[in-house]
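Re: duplicated header lines in exported C-alpha cells

Our pipeline writes sequence and C-alpha cells for each protein into one text file. With two proteins the header for the second block appears twice in some exports. Here is an export where it did not happen, for reference. First protein block:
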Amino acid sequence: MTNRLAEAKSLYLRKHAENPIDWWPWCDEALATARAQNKPIFLSIGYSSCHWCTVMEGEAFSDIAIADYMNANYLPIKVDREERPDLDSIYMQALQMMSGQGGWPLNIFLSPEDLVPFYAGTYFPVDPRYGRPGFLQVLQALRRYYDTEKAELQQRKALIIESLLTSAVLQDGTTTELEDRELLRQGWETSTGVITSGQSGNSFPMIPYTELALRGTRFNFESRYNGKQVCTQRGLDLALGGIYDHVGGGFHRYTVDPTWTVPHFEKMLYDNGQIVEYLGNLWSAGVQEPAFERAVAGTVQWLKREMTAPEGYFYASQDADSFTEPTAVEPEEGAFYVWSYSEVQELLTPEELTELQQQFTFTPNGNFEGRNVLQRRNSGKLSATLETALSKLFIVRYGVSSESLETFPPACNNQEAKTTNWPGRIPSVTDTKMIVAWNSLMISGLAKAAGVFQQPSYLELAAQAANFILENQFVNGRFQRLNYQGEPTVLAQSEDYALFIKALLDLQACNPENQRWLENAIAIQDEFNEFLWSVELGGYNNTSSDSSQDLIVRERSYVDNATPSANGIAIANLVRLALLTDNLDYLDLAELGLKAFKSVMHRSPQACPSLFTALDWYRNSTLIRSTTEQINSLIPKFLPASVFALTSDLPEGSVGLVCQGLKCLAPAENVEHLLQQVEKSQNRG
C-alpha cells in the first residue's frame, strides 16, 4: 500500500511512497491539517542520491512501530531539497544552530501554528546507538515535551527564531566528541614523539606509530612536534638508511644503531608490507621524494624475485645469516649483503667508485666488521652512474643482471643453501610458509603503492596473493592461518582475520568496480564476529571460541608491536564495512570495540597507536560516491579516512557525492568542489 508520495514527481519523494508513514508533501493542506489537529510537524528533507537519506528510509521510516506512533502524533512531511531549496536553507540553519553541524537527511520538528522549529537532527537510528537516541524515543520525548512544556517550548522557539533572523550560530560539538578529539590529539602526539629522531639504541620501523603520526598531520594539532617533518624524516631514514637493501631491494628488520646504518639483516614480509604502505601514504600526502619511489619499486622487485611462490602467495622471511662458501660450518651475519672495499674497487670504474663514496657510506675501513653496509648520504634521485654501479653489485651478489633474473629460487634450509650451485653468492635461507596476516600486510602495501604510483603490476601481484588465500585457506568452512606447501592448517587468529579483511578492503579501494573483494571481506567478517568477538568484554579475542580450551586466558590484542594490533585494525575495518554496505551493525561493533579499549587509550597511548587510527576512522569516516573516472583521480591522494563507492546515478550537473559518517553533503558540482568537500570531511574536528 502506498502513501501520498506515490503521485509525486520527485524521485526522492517517490522512494518513500511505500513507507508505512503517512507522508504528506509540503503543501497548504498539510500545514492546515497539522494546525487543525494540533500536531507538531515532522519535516524530513533530503535528496535522491543522499546516502544516509536512503539508509533512514529503509530503517526508521520503514519501521511499523515508528510509523504507527508518527501517524498518530505528528504530521509527517517529506521535502526534496532540490525542489524546495528555500525551505532547506531555512531549516538547515536551524539544524546548525541546534546541533552545531549540518547535513542530510535533515529531520526537524516544527510547531504547526508558526512553523518555527524546536528540535532537529540528521540521521536517527531505529534503536539507540553511536551516541544517538533511537528514533521512537525521540518522537515520544518530543511529543511529551510539546504537550507539557508549553512555556519552555515558547522560550526555546523565541531564541531560535531570533537567531534565524540574525545569523546562524554554530555550537561546539558534544562533550563526547570533544573528549574524543582531545584523546586523538594525545594519541597522535604520543606516536609522533615515539618516532622523533634523536633517540638512542636500535632503530625499528615502528610503522603503526608512523601511520598514526602521518594521519594526524591533517588535523594541524597544536604540538611541540612538526608532524609532517617527523613523518618525512622517518621515511628518509627508511629509504636512505642501511635498513634498506639498496642493491637488491627489500627492508631489513631494524638497525642496531640510532643512525639507521647497520641492520640486523633478516627481511620479514610483515615489515616490508607495512613500509611499502607507509611510503605510499607519505608520497600521497605530498612528500614525493624520489628515494621513496625507488625503495618501493626495489622492494616489489625483490618480492617478485625472491618472496613469491609459484602459486602466488608470499613467503614469510629471509634469514640474516648466510654462508660465505659451501664448506663453511656456520653462516655469517649479513654475508649476502655487505661489501668489502677491495672487491668493489676492482669492480667499479674510478668515476663510479668516486660517486659511490660521495653518495653512500663506503670506506676502506667499512662500517660493519671491516665491510660496508650501503647507506645513502643524500636524498633525491640517483644518477645513471650510480645506478650502473649498483647494477654491477647486483650481478656479483646474484650472478646475473636484475633485468634477466625474474625468479631467484629460495634456499629452504642450510643444506640447500650450501649444496645448490648458485651463480653468485650463497643466499640466506628463506622461510617459505604462508602466513595469512603477513601476506595481508603485503597485499595492503601493494594495493596502496599501486594506486599512488600508478603501477598496475603491483595490484596484480597483490590480487594473486589474495586469490590464493581465498581459494586455499578454508578447511570445512573455517579460515586457516598457515599454508605449508599447499596444505592449509591452524585456525586463523584475530590478526589473520583483521589484516586480511583490511587487505580485501584495500583491494576494493583500488578497484571499486570489483565487488568480489568486498563480498569476501563481508563473509570473513561474519566468521570473525561469530568465533572471536568477545560478548562479555567487547573487541576480538586472539583465538576462536572453539580452539581455546588449552589456554588459561583468552587475550585480546590491542598493543601494537612489530605489527599492528588486531583490534585496532578490526575496528577500523568495521567502520569501512559500515560505509560500504549500509549495515550499521558493523558500526555498533566498532563503537563497542572502542569503548572496550578506551581506558587503555587514555592510560597508555604509547601502547596502542592502531586503536587511535581506528578512532580516527570512527570520527572522520567519509564515503565518496562517484564515477570511475573521478574515483581513479582520487585514489592517489592522501584520504586516510575515506572509502569509495562507484555510482552512475549522480544528480544532474554533479560529479560526486560525499557523506560524512551518517550524513550526506550537497552534490559536488565540479571536481574542485568535490575535492573541497572531501578534504574538509577528512578533518571534521
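Second protein block, exported in the same file:
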Amino acid sequence: MDLDALRYGNFSKLGEAITDWEQMTKKLADLQKDAESNLKAKADKAKWAGANATVSREFIAKTAAEFADAHTQANSITKILSDTRGELIGYRTQLNDAISRATQQNMSVIDTGDGTFAVMGNTRPDWASDPSGNTGATDQKAVDALRDEIQGILTKATQSDNSAAKVLMLLVDQAKYGFSDANYKDRDTAAKAIADADKMAKILAKNPRDVTNTELASLNSTLAHYKNDPLFAEQFATQVGPKKVLTFWAGIADPYQGNYDPDRAKQAKQLQKNLGITIGRATLSDSDKMQGWEKEIIELGPDQLGIDDASNPTGYAVMSNLMRFGDYDDQFLNDYGSKLLAYDKKVNGEGINLWVNNGNDGDLNYWGSKNDRGRDPVTGFLEALGHNPDASTQFFAQPAGAGDSVNKDSEINDHLKYLTTERVWVSDTSPLGGDDNYIAGRKSLGHALEAATTGYSYDASADDIKAGGEHRTSATAAVMEEVAFLYGSEDGPKMLHDQPEMAASLGKMAGAYIDDINYNMSGVGEYEMNEAAFPAKYDGRAKFTQEGAINFLSVLGQDENSHRAVTAAQHLYSLSALDAYPPNSDANIRHAHDVLTTEAKARGILDNARVEQAATDYGANSEDGNKSLGRSADWIKLGVGAAVGVGVAAIPLPGTTAAAMVIAPVAADTVGGAVNTFIGHEIDKGMASREEDPKEQAQMTSSEFYKKGENQLGSVYHNYIKDSPDAAKSADDNNWNDDIQNAYLGVGSHQNDYRGRTPYKD
C-alpha cells in the first residue's frame, strides 16, 4: 500500500458501503425468517397434486434456503468490511502520528511512488551559525528507526487490505449462482483460515517420505479443525494442486513407511479421512479455480502417476480412496463416476484384473483394509456415493422415457445394470488376513444404493434419522423401482445368492419402502389398491405392481440378513398403522383389518421364502436348516432400541456396521402403544409368554417357525381388538381370523409360479 494512499485515505465511502451492507443484512434476516415461516411452511402444508406436488414444492424449498444463504453471505461480508475499515483507520492514525513525530525531530517522510517512501533528516543553511552549535543533522539511527516503524505500519495495512480482498473474492466465488453458506464472525477468522491453508499446503509440497510424524500430526489436527471451512478447503486444494494431492497420499499410504512406525500408520489412517473431507468441501465451491481442479483430477484418473510409491497407482485408484470420506459436489461425483465406469468397462473382464493383481502392492485404504485394500477404485467411489445421497440418486436415476413402473431392461440405468449384472468383481483382501470370498465392492454398491433410495447416508445414525424425517422423493423411489425389478426378476435369486454382501442393504432398502410395497400388494391384481389404509408419505411414491412387490419380497426372504431387515420394518410399520387407526370408528377398524391382512401376506411371502431356501440349502428338517430358521426368527429383537421420529423410525441392524440402521416409515405422527411394545417401552406379556427358551430357539423346525410367525400376528391382532367391543364384533362378524391366517399361510413361492420366485438351487 502506498504511503499517501493510507495517509490521505478517505474511508467515508467504505463506511457508507458498510452501512448499506448492515441494512441489507437486516432486511435479508427478515426475508429469511419470512421465507422459512411463511413461504416454505405453507408449501410444506399445501395439498398439491401433479407437478405442483414435486416441482413447485422443491423449488420453494430451495428458494427459502437461498434466502438463508443470502443472509449468511451478507452478514460475513459486512463483518469483513467493517473489520478491515477499522484496521485501516487505525493504521492511518498510527502513520500520521509517526509522521507528526518525524516533523518534530527534523525529519521528512516522502512518498516516492510504487509502494516506496523515503525518510530524510532536515537541514537549514543558517544552522551553521546557530549559537547553540546545533548543525541540524539528524541522527541516522533515528531515521532508520522511523523508517522501520512506518514500513511496519504500511506492511500491516497492506496485509489487512490484501487479505480482505482475498477473503471477499474467495467468498463471493464460492457460489456461481445464488449465494454461499460460508459464515465468518470477523475478517481475522477468515484470513487465518486462508493463512493456515497455505501453511498446510507447504507440507504437501514436500516429498512424502521427508514429512515427519510431527508434520503429519499438525496436518491432521489442522485439517480436522477446518473440516467445515469452505475458504480453507478451497485455498488448500488449489494451492496443493490436483496431482500433488494424489502423489502425496500415495506416498504417505505406502505400507513401506507404515511398517516400521505404528504411529505413522495411525497418522496415515486419519489423514485419509481428513484429506478426503477437506477435498470434498473444496469441491462444493463453484469458483473457476475449483472447476478447473475437478476437471484435472478426472483427467488424471486413468493414468499412472509416475511415482515409486504404492506400485505407481492410477489417479482413479488414489482419488477413489480419498473420496470415501466427505461431502462432495454432486456433479463432480457424477462426472468422475461416469468416466471411471466407462474406463472400467474397457479393462474389466475375466482375465487378469487391472486393479487387483499380484503386481499391485499398493495399499491405499486404511479403513477396513483386511478385506478392502483400496486397489479397486470402483469400491471407493461407491463408498463416496454411499455418503452423498443426492449424487447417488442422480448416478442411478432411471433413464429418460421410463414408464410408470419399471418392467423391462431398457428402463434400468446403465450404471446400475453394469454394476449388478455385468461387472466382474474380485476380492481385494490383504495377504495378512481377510476373507477371500468377500467382495468389498459389492458391499459398497449396497451402501451406494441405500443412499440413492433412502436419501440418507448409509451409515446415518439414529439421531440423524429422527431429526431428518422423511427424505424419500419421486427420484429416490425411481431408483428403488429399478432395484426391485432387478432383484425381483427371474434372475433375482441367483443374483442375491452370488452377491451375499448386498443382502443387508437390499433388506434395508425394502424396509424403507415397506409402506409402498404394502400399498402395491393391497389391491386385486393391479386394481383397487388401498390408498386409504396405505396413504403416500411423500410425492411420487414407488410403483412396483403387485406381482413385482411379491417377487421382490420372495427373493429377499431367501437370505437371513435381508429377511430380518425387511421383516422388522414391516412389523414396525404395521404397528404404527394400527396406532394411527385406533378402534374408535368403522373406517379405522376397516383400515386395521387391511393392515393386518397385508402384513400377514407380506410376512407369509418372506417366511415361506426363508423356509424353502433353508430346506434347499441344507435339506428339509436338517440341523443346519433348523439353526438357520432359528436365527431368522430372532428378527423381533431388532425392535429393542428402535428410535422413532416424525414419519420415520431407525431400527438397529447389528452384524453389518456399527451405525447400520433400517430406516422404516411409520404411519402415525405419534408413537402409540403398539409401537411402544415393539421397541421395548412396554412388555407385551402375551407375546413374552410365547417366547421360547434360548436353548431351544437355536434350532427351529419349519412348522415351529411358521407357528411363531402366526402367533406374532395373532398377538398384534388380539391386542388391537381386546379392549374394543366394536372391533371385536367386526372381527367376528367378518371372520378376521381366517383372513389373517390365510394371508400368512396361503401366499408364497410354494403355491404356484405366480406367487413369488422359487428358492435358488446350485
